[in-house]
């Protein structure tokens, strides 16, 4: 560093990478640690806070003593570069450190990070996250000390590999496949693997969902403690049960039906909740369905120093708190691409004509509020009914029930067979699938043989896993055939 560079640093003043000190002290070491845990930085010793040159008295042993003290009081040991400069006829010592590759660095057991022009003591959560981030790993990749392979469901694992077709060309068993995905490491189950495939009650995946008539009046609720894939399905099923259906007069011969909330936005929020939750926090994920809004709360604030304004502008680089969980959800087709969830939710709401959702950090967690209020309140809605009619309601009211998966086969045949099913639809739709949905899937394929499972799930208002299962059943019945590769091929009706 030359004199001109020193003058430029002094002129610019203290900041996230520069600090002035009149003399060497304990706070100098704290600042070096904070710089190393951030982007690196420079300390000018012999300069006042206001940039005035005070100089520093040195002897032959001063610098070696300082370096030795810095080295012995930091872990891993820091050794800054040192220069002595003559500035305004006074001596100034320049100490400089680079960003340390394996973070965080501590000083006598305390961890500091640089925020603006000051040092902040790091929390346990920040220490843990910083360490995992610099190792390019995440919490869910670590071995579960309390559970083993015996605690996961072989049936759930088998279903996962059938639906994803991962390693289908390899003649290895499912446990070996999980090892390739690092769900199992050195023969031991990871924390993420337990959350994804556990076969029993899972304490740390606790989700509470309730339908509220007021902030203190609950009329229906569920409590979930199962594997993460099942939780997504169960949450969406419960929420859908409590949505309203709007009948919109459009001028066409038949009225248009839609939910009062954009269900695709709800699906996106729920998947993001399950994938990005901080499972080290003992709090539960909570979803509250009110008359005018739905609140989604998740333990764990935004990850990777991302702020709310960054989310809303899209000006950020996505960093996943749970890399293993996110990876397997992506393989299942539940995540299209990393880091696009928030922008997709806002886009879906705008296209659906409802006000923009609210995103906020709340009580050491993150909360999304989805509103049913419309951007254009003049929309002609002729009728609104609950999607699940009371048991005493007439059958005409029950036709608004969108949960066809839970009806009996006889109900599906008598009430839910679409009027506009395309011709030549095979008659032998599997009996363990909704006749209505099976016919609709075949109809969609006849219109577009290259339609994706994601597009089907949106058009049918069901989870993509449900579509995958239905397609598999149709293939097993000899009704459908997949021609070509999973990505570039197409569907063919052969029944």
Task: Tell me about this structure.
The structure is a single chain. This protein has 495 residues and is α+β, with helices and mostly antiparallel strands. It folds into four domains: 3-121, Methyltransferase, Cobalt-precorrin-4 Transmethylase, Domain 2 (2-Layer Sandwich); 139-200, no CATH class; 204-371, Heat Shock Protein 90 (2-Layer Sandwich), CATH 3.30.565.60; 407-493, Winged helix-like DNA-binding domain superfamily/Winged helix DNA-binding domain (Arc Repressor Mutant, subunit A, Orthogonal Bundle). It has 17 helices and 21 strands. The protein has helices at 3-12, 26-36, 62-73, 124-134, 154-164, 174-180, 191-197, 228-241, 263-276, 308-313, 323-331, 341-352, 395-398, 409-415, 435-447, 453-460, 464-476, and strands spanning 18-21, 41-45, 74-75, 81-87, 90-97, 106-107, 110-115, 118-121, 184-185, 188-189, 207-214, 217-224, 244-248, 256-259, 285-289, 293-299, 358-362, 365-371, 381-386, 480-483, 490-493.
Looking across the biggest beta sheet, what order are the strands in? Answer: 12-11-15-16-18-17
C-alpha termini separation: 78 Å
Taking Cα atoms only, what radius of gyration do you get, to the nearest Å?
A: 29 Å
Count of runs of 4 or more consecutive helical residues: 17
What's the CATH class label of the largest domain? Alpha Beta
Going by CATH, the architecture of the largest domain would be 2-Layer Sandwich
Low-confidence stretches: 378-431
Helix-strand layout with pairing:
Elements: H1 3-12, E1 18-21, H2 26-36, E2 41-45, H3 62-73, E3 74-75, E4 81-87, E5 90-97, E6 106-107, E7 110-115, E8 118-121, H4 124-134, H5 154-164, H6 174-180, E9 184-185, E10 188-189, H7 191-197, E11 207-214, E12 217-224, H8 228-241, E13 244-248, E14 256-259, H9 263-276, E15 285-289, E16 293-299, H10 308-313, H11 323-331, H12 341-352, E17 358-362, E18 365-371, E19 381-386, H13 395-398, H14 409-415, H15 435-447, H16 453-460, H17 464-476, E20 480-483, E21 490-493
Helix pairs in contact: 8-9, 9-12, 16-17
